Amino acid sequence: MLEIRGLAASINEKPILKGIDLTVPAGEVHAIMGPNGSGKSTLGYVLSGREDYVVTGGTATFNGVDLLTMEPEQRAAAGLFLAFQAPIELPGVNNANFLRTALNAIRRAHGESELDAVQFLKLAKAETKRLAMPDDMLKRNVNVGFSGGEKKRNEVLQMALLRPRLAILDETDSGLDIDALKIVADGVNALRRPEFSALVITHHQRLLDYLVPNRVHVLLHGRIVRSGGPELAKELEKSGYAELIAEAA
Amino acid sequence: MAAVTETLDTVQSVTQSGYKWGFETTIEMDFAPKGLSEDIIRLISTRKEEPEWMLEWRLKAYAAWLKMEEPHWARVDHPPIDYQDLHYYAAPKKKAGPKSLDEVDPELLKMYEKLGIPLKERAILAGVDPDTVEDRQVAVDAVFDSVSVATTFKATLSKAGVIFCPISEAIREHPDLVKQYLGTVVPTGDNFFAALNSAVFTDGSFVYIPKGVRCPMELSTYFRINARNTGQFERTLIIAEAGSHVSYLEGCTAPQRDENQLHAAVVELIAMDDAQIKYSTVQNWYPGDANGKGGIYNFVTKRGACRGARSKISWTQVETGSAITWKYPSCVLHGEDSVGEFYSVAVTNNHQQADTGTKMIHIGKGSRSTIISKGISAGHSNNTYRGLVRMLPGAANARNFTQCDSLLIGDQCGAHTVPYIESRNPTAKVEHEATTSKIADDQLFYCRQRGLSEEDAVSLIVNGFCKDVLKELPMEFAVEAQKLLAVSLEGSVG
């Protein structure tokens, strides 16, 4: 379970998050919606420990463990995974090597044995097949020369292999066609189990047709201003954020 | 990935123990007095039981050296070197000459063990037939300071007609070959350090591959400086006759030191028609401490002559050590359609300085060269690529491609690129590409979010950056090189 209380954070001394309260129980998927600049991506970065962001108040715990005092790799080992809105390119770094290094780092942290190249490839090929990704994606350099859609699928592949307990998807649906969107949704749905939680940051209701959230929250000016069931997303799709913005003003 | 795990282990062991290879054996040394003079050169020549012509050659080089000045054009900075304050000859004390391993100082063998050198002599010592222990197929001409102590696989090599021996032995046993080729690629008066080397070199390797022979194994030499204040002046000469192939590996580690040590080696390669020489180096001399104290001065002249048509010389180097590196492995492409290659990774950290690159001199028609240089700077270091591509009038349709990439870690270091291009043939084609990048915070964060430690993330990104060069290394060197990169950059981030 993810518990966030009064979380405030700033970048370059500019406050972005101004007191977030949010609880995502184990086994649930929550959607975070809101207009550009409302702090959605910042929330993902702060929870995963990006250094440019300074936490100025509040707490965030995952299964009772204080996330905010941990290094990014410790949070990853604790089960947190961030699917990047703009996945990063690593020139010269083979995708399969990168994935295996990451998976083994996490396995090590859990006291599990590391996978050798053969074991890993078997696992990875099963996942690429399931995600309808070409095998050569494993051979290419991490995100280098990938199309926008391929980058997003590569994020989902990483998530599928690392099997996080808390996934944060930062607009993983943006720029995807409907087929790719389904693949992303299926990727998350496949991970759904009682001990898995997800925060899905999105602009569009569309993804939520395939990835039905337990709760929807609207983030505005660094605060959650409205929460509701899946129907809230549909409502926002029709009416937009104007009303909420007016209310908040 | 196993290499990363190994890297992690290596980094840990280094952080715990400081410089990993920083031990010193306690073998008694046999020193010549400090300083350089004709008398010292005569002493070296006598100790080496050299013929008169070799002494003459040395004295000529010494005379040339006396008239020369230390070069100062490189982007490196060091206090003046007092050439009279160095020992020019040191040899492990020997009883009757190390003709077999039984006579070799056990301290020395222990040292090789510490170094992890796969010296098959241990098996041989244990009474195993050398012919049954050739699984690894790497011949080692182990150079301990200045005297080559043991040469392995000699039998296998001589069956193929390959000569692989200490150069001092070659001077005695194969004087005609040495006389014919020594100093023909790097003349005695070529430059200050080459002249010094020619006057005082004490050992090194000699390789001769006869016509049409593919050398049956990788040839490997491990150099190691082990005597305080002793300059190391290695001389290596490799001759590949027409149609022959050879791959030579050179790797170094050095014990920890407080004082700077001078190292001025000369390597000459000669490739005849259709011959190929691949020369790979992993250089890990002691770089000095985090404040720039100590460390090796590595002033090396390496040059290959592609004398024959379609001959090929390929240099691959991974330079992580030394306080100062001054080194430009070069190719003189005489032969028609001859090929020169230079693949380099140079890493500088803390206060290290590297000024390294290559020269490709195109003389023959249709000669081609490729230069791939990857410079990585961290800490307060300075890393310079200095390269010359010269197309002479006869080099019709010659081509060069140069790619020169720099990676910066942190904001206190420097990367410099100094390419010289001279073309005197209108049909010759020269391409130069250069990039400078930083390890981006978002790359590090991306890796760490996936569970990698910061050190592993840097190692992964740096190894990716160097991949085009590392893939040129023989397999076992590639793994060692990956480890070295990680160790060299340890503590450079955060």
What do these coordinates show?
The complex is a heterodimer of chains A (249) and B (494). Chain A is an alpha/beta fold. Chain A has helices spanning 40-48, 72-77, 95-109, 117-130, 136-139, 148-162, 178-191, 206-210, 231-239, 242-248, and strands at residues 2-11, 14-24, 29-33, 53-62, 65-66, 80-83, 166-170, 197-201, 215-220, 223-228. Chain A is 39% helix and 26% strand. Chain A is globular, with a radius of gyration of 18 Å. Chain B is α/β, with parallel strands linked by helices and 494 residues long. Chain B has helices spanning 2-17, 38-47, 52-66, 106-115, 121-125, 154-159, 167-173, 175-181, 192-200, 441-449, 454-465, 467-470, 475-488, and strands at 29-31, 90-92, 138-144, 147-151, 163-166, 205-209, 218-223, 235-240, 245-253, 261-263, 266-271, 276-284, 296-306, 312-319, 324-327, 330-333, 339-348, 353-362, 368-377, 382-391, 399-408, 414-423, 429-438. In chain B, strand 3 and strand 4 (147-151) form a beta hairpin. The two termini of chain B are 23 Å apart. Residues 1-19, 93-98, 117-137, 144-151 and 222-230 of chain B have low confidence and may be disordered. Classes of the chains: A alpha/beta (249), B alpha/beta (494).
Supply the helix-strand structural class of chain B: alpha/beta
Helices and strands of chain A: which structural class?
Answer: alpha/beta
Order of helices and strands of chain A: EEEHEEHEHHHHEHEHEEHH
Shape of chain B: globular
Distance between the termini of chain B: 23 Å
Total beta strand runs of chain B: 23
* Strand order, sheet with most strands of chain A: 6-7-8-3-9-10
Second-tier CATH architecture of chain A: 3-Layer(aba) Sandwich
Oligomer class: heterodimer
Overall morphology of chain A: globular
Largest sheet of chain B: 11 strands, mixed
The counted number of beta strands of chain A is 10
Radius of gyration of chain B: 22 Å
Distance between the termini of chain A: 32 Å
Nearest-angstrom radius of gyration of chain A?
18 Å
Mean pLDDT of chain B: 80
Helix content of chain A: 25-40%
Here the CATH topology of chain A equals: Rossmann fold
